[in-house]
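testing teh design pipeline on a random one, pls ignore if ur not involved
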C-alpha cells in the first residue's frame, strides 16, 4: 500500500510542475525506460548465448516451434 501512496504523491508533485518541466520529465523517463529495456534484452542475449555455448539448446523445426508457441 505504501508504494501506491508514494506513486500518488509523485503524480501530485508532477502535476504541480510547469508543463514544460513535465514534458522534460516525460522525455527523461522515456529514455530511461528504453535504456532499461535495452539492458534487459542484452542480459537475455548474454544468458541465451551462455546456454547455447553450454549445449543446453536443441534444434527444432519451424513447425515444432510454432506448435509450442500456440500451445
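output:
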Amino acid at each position: 500500500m505504501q508504494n501506491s501512496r508514494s506513486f500518488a504523491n509523485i503524480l501530485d508533485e508532477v502535476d504541480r510542475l510547469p508543463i514544460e518541466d513535465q514534458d522534460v520529465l516525460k522525455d527523461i523517463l522515456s529514455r530511461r525506460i528504453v535504456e532499461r529495456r535495452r539492458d534487459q534484452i542484452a542480459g537475455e542475449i548474454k544468458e541465451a548465448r551462455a546456454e547455447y555455448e553450454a549445449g543446453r539448446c536443441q534444434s527444432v523445426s519451424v513447425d515444432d516451434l510454432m506448435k509450442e508457441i500456440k500451445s
